[in-house]
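Students often ask why we bother encoding 3D structure as a string. The short answer is that it lets us treat folding as translation between two languages. Here is a chain of 491 residues written in the first language.
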Amino acid sequence: MPDSFEHMPTVGIRMPNGALSALAGNVDPHHQVAVADLILVQREVRPTVERLVHEWQPALVGLSVMTFQRKTALRIIELVRALRPGVRIAVGGYDPSLAPEAYTDPTAAVDFIVRGEGELTFRELVRALESGGGFENIAGLSYRAGDGFLHNPDRPVYGIADGEIRLPNRDARVLRDYAFLGRPVDVVETSRGCTYDCSFCSIIEMRGRNFHTFAFDRVLADIRDARDHGARAIFLVDDNITLNVRRFEALCRAIIDAGLDDLEYLVQAMTSAIAAHGTTLAPLMRQAGFRYVFLGIENILDDDLRFLRARAKNALRANGKALGNATTTAIEHLHRHGMYVVGGLIVGNPDDTRESIEANLAFARRCVDYPYIQHPTPYPRTPMTREFRERGLVINENLEEYDGTTAVVRSEHVAADEIEFLRWRAERWMKVRHMRAVLKARPGFLLRNGRKMLTHTFRGGSFVKALLGLEDERRAFARYRAIRKAERLYV
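And here it is in the second language, the structure alphabet:
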């Protein structure tokens, strides 16, 4: 889908949807497959879809959908149906997996729902369509039968070390120009799953609490393939790569030994793991080429971590005892070895006050290099959603605004609009501060795109007026929200 996160403006970050090329790589090779990642054509979605349907005349069109992309997905389905009435439509991703009822209505015009991890289910679906066989034995599949839908049993979570999951097919991409701050970027997966139970997480709702890994030979082959396709930066998209620190250290060594340390790596990590092992892990990461680390800080206040069920993964431990929050120690390790911290925090939890929100924002200003501050969002079937609804705190049912940076829930003490305003006001200057690092590392990119980046960050207002204190922040925020709403109309 073309819908993007506020924290990932396409002028600077255009990240691939790795699931698409993974699905393409796991259908039988005699099929013709085209992958179209519409994030690359946000302002040309309709003509791009029209062109691709005309050129490819597809028998099956699949859409990967997150909750805030649902409205766009249904509009694209309507467009594809109008262009090619006989086509079969399949949907997958965490929104169809966790809220299949949204896609079973006849008006949705969906034929198949691929629930959970899709490679094997999608492969079997394509085989059944090819052979004319039935769908009743395909685990993880829901399919239209007459006026209703039949839901097959879930596909059990499968191990991924046996080689059955093939490498992605990046040659299937028919749109190009993925980039991270001017460098061609791709995504690689080395493991799946997490054993923690954070209340906001959709992954554990889809696959339970478990952790499976790919063999290093496969991981290195995937990185080489991404490099051969032009990537100079790699985002390791694992759910929680630091669950097994020794394996992560071994992976860093394998990257170095394979001569793949000439690439720039981005990764997600737990604060507790980095804090506990940073003395040896951080320098090894830097040697392997890691540059940006997304830290799941979640919150610096213990009460909020308790609500988020994130205390364990953010605890500083020694001699078997918890000594407090691991965030500061983890950041110090990463900064000491020249890595940038993308700070993932969640503000606007049920019992948050203005003071607790401001405390987290002040911490982010002091300690993180780039903010990734979100509001708690009631995604389908997560424990967080149940509590917000039970307490009557959900104030917005427009799913296209469930993008993490639109406050769709209030706290017991602060209105949703005020929570969002506080984050928006603080984040703009954090992003400006990070431009100094971009100038040092990518001077050419910043000279070409700095004005666009500032315009995006300060849309609704003016960077110069804000800098001089001449801007009415409340009016600028209102204009920003209106612009953001208009941006969501892709089709």
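Translate back mentally: The first strand starts at residue 13 and ends at 14. Keep this in mind for the problem set.
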